[in-house]
Amino acid sequence: MSTAEPASSKRELDLGAESSIGELPFPLSIGPDHYFLSRDKDGAYHLLSAICPHSWGRIVRWDNCFMCPDHGWRFELKEGLCVNGPRSRMYTFPVKVRDGQLYAEVPEDKAKWG
Ligand code: FES
Predict the structure, then answer these.
(1) Can you point out the beta strands (E) in the chain?
(2) What's the whole-number average pLDDT of the chain?
(3) Position 91 in a domain
(4) Does ligand 1 have an atom closer than 6 angstroms to the CB of 52?
(5) Rounded to the nearest 5 degrees, what angle is found at the Cα of 91, between the Cα atoms of 4 and 7?
(6) pLDDT tens per residue, range 28-73
(7) Any bridge partners for residue 65, and if so which?
(8) From the CB of 59, is ligand 1 less than 6 Å away?
């Protein structure tokens, strides 16, 4: 008998053609969910969720950072690292480029995002 937990299922999100992406961080809405596409200092794309890791407020772009208006946590724009609070970061998902198209793998269960 196995006691291992079942692997969390993920869905692949099609983020569109790389050539269609505007200035980064680029806001994206996929179904009811909101994200930002960003790129780190090494050039790797990341998909950052607009759901705040503190208490699920809605993160917005604010001046030169992201900000959650619920309690004021702020995050830098490239990797979503919290800059004014605890060691935290925005929910972040890796992005792959295949044939000029961007894809991100996101766990189906938002409780497993952290
Ligand atoms: S819910 Fe975002 S800072 Fe509290």
Answers:
(1) 10-17, 26-30, 33-39, 45-49, 60-62, 65-67, 74-75, 92-98, 101-107
(2) 92
(3) yes
(4) yes
(5) 15
(6) 999 999 999 999 999 999 999 999 999 999 999 999 999 999 999 9
(7) 62
(8) no
**Parent domain of 52:** 24-96
Residue 17 resides in a domain: no
Number of structural domains (the chain) is 1
- Please tell me if the CB atom of residue 85 comes closer than 6 angstroms to any atom of ligand 1: no
Q: Residue 82 maps to which CATH number?
A: 2.102.10.10
**Domain membership flag for residue 4:** no
Distance between Cα 51 and ligand 1 center (Å): 9
Distance of CA 39 to the CA centre of its chain: 11
Check: CB of residue 71 under 8 Å from CB of residue 60. no
Residue 113 amino acid letter = W
CA 31, chain centre distance (Å): 15
15: helix, strand or coil: strand
Which among 83, 40, 75, 43 has a CA at the least distance from the CA of 57?
A: 75
Give the distance (Å) from ligand 1 centre to CA of residue 114: 14
Whether residue 78 lies inside any domain: the answer is yes
